[in-house]
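Hello Y.,

Per our agreement to keep a running log of every chain we model this quarter, I'm adding this entry. I've kept the format consistent with earlier entries: sequence first, then predicted structure.
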Amino acid sequence: MRREIAAFLSYITIEKGLAANTQQAYQRDLGRFAQYLEKRQLSLSAVSRDTITEFLKDLQGSGLNSRSISRALVVLRHFFQFLVFDRDLAENPCLAVESPKVWKRLPQVLSLDEVECLLNQPDVSIVSGIRDKAMLEVLYATGLRVSELVSLELHSLKTDLGYLTCVGKGGKVRVVPLGKSALQALDHYLKEARLRLLQGKNCNTLFLNQRGEKLTRQGFWKILGAYGRCAQIRVRIKPHILRHSFATHLLQRGADLRAVQTMLGHSDISTTQIYTHVLKERLRSLYQQHHPRT
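Predicted structure for the entry above:
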């Protein structure tokens, strides 16, 4: 089975262009399945619907939540479909297996006051503070994923036109507008801080660490967490909270759900629909405000 997994991972990397994090998740889930089959001395051709069901139960017994189990089933469906088309497997044993129920929690968001407090934390009298201010402003202004933020390059910016381009999941490029505050913070960073961080080195990445190199995702997480603690915000600050806040605040002010989907880089509108509670609240408010019988 290890050979088939390697072929499948090569396929999703070359043909599908899936992001590195997604590839790692696929490899992890398939590795668990391979171990499960090895323990039971089962071959791929012997895998049935019952085998898949028992494997999912085994994952549940190990403490995995329903979301992770659902993802594992999706991975197995893709894997076996690949084997059907590319390795002449008779049928996909996952097709008749139902996904476990996943409870979709409402995303955590910050209030406008909390966002304002967080964005005002960096000390813009020092180089690192100027950089951090620019990163936070860009993250809230665009709703980028943290991996997209730290991968921005100088050519990604079109400050004269008021937008940036970023490469999202699956290598898809999208255009996202930049607000006035983000543009001002970026201008300050480019003029006053970036060259000093660069220290004479050559690097096209927009946001740099203290060594003049590309800032990592982990590095940004630490920076953001520290500012969250300084701001004494009620929830633990993670990059996705600013992404959720970006989407929620736009929708609260009348933005179209499809437009928000485009800016977030969601390929499917169903992913963006976790924010529909905001639309329902807005509709209720509009109804109460304008209907003559309320």
